[in-house]
Amino acid sequence: MRLERRPPSRLAAAAAPVVSILAALAAGGLMLAASGVNPFAAYAVLVSDPFGSAFGWSETAVKATPLILTGLAVLLPARMRLWNIGAEGQLQCGAIGATWIAVFTPIGHSALAVPALLLVGMGAGAAWCLVPAILRAWLSVNETITTLLMNYVALLLVDFLIYGPWQDPQGRGFPLSPVLPASAKLPVLVPGTRIHLGFALALLAVAATAFVLTRTRWGLEIRIIGDNPDAARYAGINLTRNILLVMAAAGALAGLAGAGEVSAVSGRLQQGLSPGYGYTGIIVAWLARLHPVATVLVAFLLGGLFLGGDGLQISLNLPIAVVYMLQGLIFFFVLGGEQLAGSRVRIGPRAPAEGGR
Amino acid sequence: MRGITKRFPGVVANDAVDFTAAPGEIHALLGENGAGKSTLMKILYGFYQPDAGEIRLHGTPRVFRSPKDALRAGLGMVFQQFMLVPSLSVVQNVLLGLPSQGWRLDERAAAASLAAAAARYGMAVHPWARVWQLSVGEQQRVEILKLLARGADVLILDEPTAVLTPQETRDLFDTLRRLAGEGRTIVVITHKLSEVMAAADRVTVLRAGRLVGTTPTAATSPRALARMMVGRETFDLPERDPVTPGPVVLEVRDLWADGDRGPDALQGVSLAVRAGEIVGVAGVAGNGQRELGEIVAGLRRPTRGRVVIAGRDRTGAGPLDAIRAGLGHVPEDRLGTGVAPRLSVADNLILKSYRDSRFGRGPLLNRQTVHQVARTLIRAFKIQTPGPDTPAGTLSGGNVQRLILAREISAGPRAILAFHPTRGLDIGATEAVHRALLAQRRAGIGVLLISEDLDEILQLSDRVAVLCGGQIMGVVRPGDVTVEQIGLLMGGTRLAVPEETA
């Protein structure tokens, strides 16, 4: 038995993600059953909590907000064949930056607090991402590794701050920063929900990314580099500058996600600010097949999975690991499905060699 | 080997070729690029299966289904790209392919026998050195030792001297001589006449997949071999309008450069192209053409010398400056460099000109203008494509080349660098490319044409520079020389020909 590569048919290309997700859920169901949980009950919670009510949908949108942004933070460099695994760390840095301006400077109490914390958050994320970008652009250091490792540094930096200099004096020794002033809270968009300005900004970022990629000279450069770096060099495109620009933009997007979380959701810098939004952004980008608009859809799906996971913890007493397991399975199956959609399984003896008689 | 025929899609690589090599001889297999030398030897080595013909080894018919079969029968081949594991030692590399001798490796014993063999055949190699530390010449010795360790008594070497210094070349032929002296058969694939004359006992010449003849080297001359290799005595010059060349638009002066295979791939190359003139660069592949082309296009930095485009010094200024100075570039590797294959035909047509203000204000790119320009170019250059949105990589080779020509010519260049512009194209597409280049000449553009296709060079060029070993052996006018004179220049022999004073 062997696999033959061929271009996927239209039907196979369209059906592959759906079939793959269903297969992933089936495999996940087996694992849940093996650990003594009724998979149907679990999946009922997973679906009904995020998507079964208006409130559920609104909460899913809250979770989807950072996922859209981190998804874009992975997608944009990936269009240039740069692998940004560091959206998690860039998000944390965005949160640090936003906390700093809101809590530790007078701007936090001014009318400029919200724009200021968003900009500083984006700047902090961009700066964090520029470290691996510079290493890549001038020293050809593999950005996959460095962006990943920078995540741990960022998380430890958060720990240092909330256990140390930024610890809330009124926090009874808990590792929390002081609460952001009310003036530094992102406005709620839909009254009665937690959907905040960040959601609108995320959608704007999607539109902007799509626009840049298809309607600007810079976007054409990114697409040329992503498709054939040799052709880009031949066309006189500056690869170094584009690596720096794209990585900075990616870091800014993830930083914006962090600023939004700190300001609108947690209200302070703390541990568990992100249940892995940055890493999930990788899955968002790939399931969206690197199309910016599709990230919204996928972010809702995976945001719903996070929300349903919260429900599982409460109602079935399952650990959050179930969510990560399902995320992993979906990612795994979708990638595999994509591969298989481009292949035909042949059972039998080897066909005659190419160029043969 | 008798009546060997091998067809690839669109080409007959070998057409009923006979080839015989005797024990104890060094046999040269001579021909231009694409003559079918490597294919023939890869068939012998079991790498390809022939479509027709028979292989006999020591008189008995044999079928080699794979190189493994051939190795077992005592055949060994050293490819141009070495098959060594860089992080392992020489001994380990030699042991790697040997038939299993149980699970324990006796590296020490192997090293001793390796050193003995190396000394016997005059191949200085340190058994414990890691392969990545070795020079190219040393790596080649390891390849040969590897085959000897497997008991090969027929050794095939594919262009073995292409990567060697003159000293290493002499050493290699010394070694081969000793190996042949013990009754082994050595086959050397080459295009260098001097090596054939210096080292081989007999020579077989292939041209365009067919056997031209086999002769003892003692009974032939470089001139005769050049004629056998290249084919005809005279050329048909196509009708070309007389164009009075204008000022120099592209010039390189005393260019030195390191290449991918080693230092000094170019050694003091000077060449000038005037407006309305096509200057051809002939030569066998790997003699500095790629380095010359890349330096002119700004993609590689010379170690010495200058590049002047349209009167301005562009040495080491980068590809964008070369484009802005007015250099059009039809690159060597059409799909690998010339286009972004998954992007649309339209995007590829504006691959360089997207910076123009006509395509939109500021950072914006006006898709409508892009499409409009693309449609115009598709029509003008007869690019056969379903539409401007079709991925460029799905087009045929000829249409990809039309796309590239459309882009480069429509940019209004002062000079065009055309590198292998018709390689792999069918007759129709080739003609279209030739017509386009001649039209550019008429329009007063200077064309630097680098090609392995001698016919093409001689048909199109006003002057021909012949490159060999990174040096220009001579600059000649196509009408003034015979094929054999060009062949001798390509083979690295300087001779008194009516040389152009350029």
Structural features, described:
The complex is a heterodimer of chains A (357) and B (502). Chain A is mainly alpha-helical and 357 residues long. Chain A contains 13 helices and 2 strands. Chain A has helices at residues 10-34, 39-51, 54-78, 87-104, 113-139, 143-163, 197-215, 217-227, 229-234, 239-266, 277-287, 292-315, 321-341, and strands at residues 2-5, 343-346. Chain A has a two-stranded antiparallel sheet with strand order 1-2. In chain A, α1 (10-34) runs antiparallel to α13 (321-341), α3 (54-78) runs parallel beside α7 (197-215) and α3 (54-78) crosses α12. The radius of gyration of chain A is 22 Å and the shape is globular. Chain B is of the alpha/beta class and 502 residues long. Helices cover 33% and strands 23% of the residues of chain B. Chain B is built from 17 helices and 20 strands. In chain B, the strands form 4 sheets. Chain B has a 6-stranded mixed β-sheet with strand order 6-7-8-3-9-10, sandwiched between helices. Chain B has a 6-stranded mixed β-sheet with strand order 16-17-18-13-19-20, sandwiched between helices. In chain B, strands 2-1-4-5 form a 4-stranded antiparallel β-sheet, covered by helices on one side. In chain B, α8 crosses α17 (483-490) and α14 (397-410) runs parallel beside α15 (427-442). Chain B is globular. Chain B starts with a strand and ends in a 12-residue tail after the last helix. Mean pLDDT of chain B is 86; it is low at 233-237. Classes of the chains: A mainly alpha (357), B alpha/beta (502). The A-B interface holds A 214-220, 223-224, 227-228, 230-238, 353, 355-357 and B 7-9, 48-49, 51, 297-299, 318-324, 329, 331, 333, 336-343, 347, 350-352, 354-355, 359-360, 363-365, 367.
